[in-house]
Amino acid sequence: MTSFVTPTSFARMYPVPDQCGLIKQSAEDFYVREVAIEDLSGSGEHVYLKVRKRHANTHWVARQIADFCSVRQMDVGYAGRKDRHAVTEQWFSCYLPKEDPSWDDLVIEGVELLAVARHSHKLRRGDLQGNQFDIRITGLQSCDRELMEIRINEIKLYGFPNYFGKQRFGRDNLTQAEEFLASGKRTVAGRDMLISAARSYLFNQYLGNCIEAEDIPEFGPLYGRSRDPQPGEHLLSTREVAWVKGLRRLKVKAGQRRMVVKPESFDWCFEKADLHLSFTLLAGGYATSLLRELINYQDASLGAQSE
Predict the structure, then answer these.
(1) Which neighbouring-strand residues pair with 281?
(2) Are 70 and 100 in contact (CB under 8 A)?
(3) Is residue 189 part of a domain?
(4) Residue at 230 is within a domain
(5) pLDDT tens digit string along 66-122?
């Protein structure tokens, strides 16, 4: 079977950076805070929990909350998965129309409860404005600060490719997605995750091809059911055409995603051999997609280099 293009191998928008560095030497080096999409009403059948988690998987935390509250896992919601190898602040919702449990008794390894409030509806995927990142890049050697600041300002002014990050694909999500889309089945364990992985990969391919052609439209396709052909269909390989047919058989609705995004509130400072970055991305943006345009980084939490 043909191997997949790795998420870190797609075309860059800027020349390959010379500088190398490390990310995530500690969880505190990668701090993420959700930017909420709405204010909480203070009343309703859903309890919202704001937590700070360290080295904890979002899905696992949701399961712990469900167990503690004695509710079904589907009754716990969150706006998006956050990186496990990080410190992250995010909200969870729990359907509790009657009484609250004693939140002082909620004990989850690596998780700190910051706030509790009630609201009228469940927190669903995508129910956030964005994420604010505070990132420390360490181990910069012979750093040419002037060149790095030029690149930072280019990214601030012109943006960066809105690739889906490798977190989206897990260890073998694409292999499983391919098998599912070819199987003729309508459902399978992790169905939504596999569909998302397949669409994300196809989007990355399209974006990479546009960068190489130096012709980047404002939006790119998230393949699915569509009355008219979607952009880039004529460039799809036989394998990828089969994926799109599978997505349409499953009645996945076609969509689109912005191709280039600009970070907001972008600040930075150097401290000895470290670079501190602070910026906000709209929902769905990946900080690692920004970082790969700035530096050849090695992820210390995985022991895997960006290239």
Answers:
(1) 131
(2) no
(3) yes
(4) yes
(5) 999 999 999 999 999 998 899 999 999 999 999 999 999 999 999 999 999 999 999
Q: 119 with 168, same domain?
A: no
Confidence at residue 110, expressed as pLDDT on a 0 to 100 scale: 97
Torsion over CA: 191, 197, 203, 209 (sign): negative
252 with 174, same domain?
A: yes
CA 144 to CA 270: how far, in whole Å? 11
Q: DSSP characters for 85-126?
A: SSEEEEEEEEE-SS----GGG---TTEEEEEEEEESS---TT
Instruction: Show the tokens assigned to 189.
Output: 């364990």
Number of domains in the chain: 2
Q: How far is CA 265 from CA 132, 134, 258, 271, in A?
A: 9, 11, 19, 20
CATH label of the domain that carries residue 62: 3.30.2350.20
Pair 4, 280: CB distance under 8 Å: no
Q: How is the chain split among helix, strand and coil, in percent rounded to 5? A: 30, 30, 40
- Residue 157, Cα to own-chain centre: how many angstroms? 22
In a domain, 82, yes or no: yes
The answer to whether residue 26 sits within a structural domain is no
Residue 52 bridge partners (DSSP): 89, 112
Q: Which domain holds residue 246?
A: 163-258
Tokens of 40: 């909480």
- What span, in angstroms and rounded, lies between the C-alpha atoms of 74 and 289? 31
C-beta separation of 288 from 305 below 8 A: no
- Residues across the chain: 307
Arithmetic mean of pLDDT, 143-158: 93
Q: How many CB atoms lie within 10 A of CB 273?
A: 14
Report the catalytic residues: 83
